[in-house]
Amino acid sequence: MVELLNGLFGQYADYPTLFIGLELIAVIFGVASVLLASKTNILVFPIGLVSTAIFVYLLWKWQLFGDMFINAYYSVMSIYGWINWSKNKQLTQHQDPINPTAQQRKQSPELKKTDGSNLIQVERLNKNDVPILALLATATMAFVGLVYYFRPVINNQFSFDGAVLGVHLFTWVDYTDMLTTALFLMAMWLMARRKIEHWLLWIVADAISVPLYFYKGLTFTALQYVVFTLIAIWAYYEWQRRYRTQSHTAYA
Tens-digit pLDDT profile for the chain (252 aa)? Predict the structure, then answer.
């Protein structure tokens, strides 16, 4: 048991206390944001921003640039998603300005029990989303690959003196990081667009990230992704239920 604990948490002996505290705070806010997302609660975005901002700082310090890029993107997309969800919530609240009580009468008992944050309408992926997703995936993998290609220069204080470059220096971690980064970026964009299928991408990317972060020595973050995977599986079915409920309400 002692050896197992040392294997999981031994690396933290060399970490500054500040870094450990910040990672724990980021993990707590990250889990909270995913739970809020599963309930289509708009607070997912401000809560998530706290987590991603902390991780941007930590990952820069740890020189995990692909992961840092993901979290920087999350921060930008959180602002976009916050705006998009807010507009959708306002639109839903004012769907019937002539007879404002009609929408409430049509709602199922299940929806009547929900709070105002759950007025967010979820949608399914459509063919117009596919080209954007393909572009995001291609651009992301190319960008992260470029970052890792020039990693020796970055680690050398952005100096080319003595730096050796080449794709042959890439490790399996780098290639996996490129894949998960693309999956995460597509998922975050779909989430901001209120698409149900974004949870499928989260499930795959989160599951891959668990052993990846254990290998990188970020045990708390790896455990966070275990929780993320479980929540994402549940949330996928929750959003499908919500979609069926709102569709039934629309035609009631």
Answer: 556 555 555 566 566 788 888 888 998 998 899 899 888 899 999 999 999 999 898 888 877 776 787 788 888 888 999 998 888 877 766 554 444 444 444 444 544 444 444 568 899 999 999 999 999 999 989 988 998 898 888 778 788 988 889 888 898 888 998 899 899 889 989 999 999 999 999 999 999 999 988 887 778 888 889 999 999 999 999 999 988 888 665 544
Residues, the chain: 252
Cα–Cα distances in angstroms (integers) from residue 140 to residues 31, 64, 67, 135, 178, in the given order: 25, 15, 12, 8, 7
Enter the pTM of the model: 0.77
Residue with tokens 């966070």: 224
Rounded Cα gap, residues 29 and 51, in angstroms: 5
Do residues 219 and 8 lie in contact, with contact meaning Cβ atoms separated by under 8 Å? yes
Q: What are phi and psi of 190, to 5 degrees?
A: -65, -35
